[in-house]
Amino acid sequence: MTGQLSNTQINNILSSQVVGRIAGSAENKPYIVPVTYRFDGKYIYGQTNEGMKLDMFRKNPAVCFEVDTMTDMRNWQSVVVFGKFEELAGEEATVAEKVLFERIFSLMTKSVIHSQGHEISTEVCDKTRKKQLFYRILIDNITGRFEKQH
Questions:
Q1: pTM of the model
Q2: Which end of the chain is less crowded, N or C, counting CB atoms within 10 A of the terminal residue's CB?
Q3: d(CA 81, CA 74)
Q4: pLDDT tens, position by position, 102-144
Q5: Least confident of 22-26, 82-86, 97-101, 136-140
């Protein structure tokens, strides 16, 4: 069976995941990339560095954002958000950083998890977790679909 997700199901998926895909296009070039994010019920927050993605979204702020969950090829849920990319500065960037890191910081871990022969540090280096710019997606429209087979 396939169908439409309810608003509650859509919000639950957006709130429970931390990796989505943001897509846009500029000058006839489409681009999609996975990003870490946080949904607060109104906006999708993320962070980025200078580069192709940011250049594109500055030229054309109309973006699409996708999140999915999948058990197998016949049991999945997908949410697609259409909205506007907004680069943040000042107090808005500070709020975005707080909102984003409250959710994803606890999920970050070292790539080396054993201490034998290695020095272990619990200190987090901002150079690797914090990017130059924070943004949000102002949501225009959300759709959600699913397939569920027993």
A1: 0.81
A2: C
A3: 22
A4: 877 666 655 544 455 545 444 545 454 566 899 999 999 999 9
A5: 97-101
Q: How far apart are CA 68 and CA 142, in angstroms?
A: 13
Identity at 90, one-letter amino acid code: G
Given the structure tokens 């030229």, which residue do they identify? Answer: 59
The C-alpha atoms of residue 10 and residue 17 are separated, in whole angstroms, by 11
Instruction: Look at residue 24 and give its three-state secondary structure.
Output: strand
E-strand stretches of 54-122: 62-72, 75-88
Question: Which CATH homologous superfamily contains domain 2-106+127-148?
Answer: Electron Transport, Fmn-binding Protein; Chain A (2.30.110.10)
CB 15 within 8 A of CB 42: no
Q: Compute the residue count for the chain.
A: 150
Within 10 angstroms of residue 142's Cβ, the number of other Cβ atoms is 16
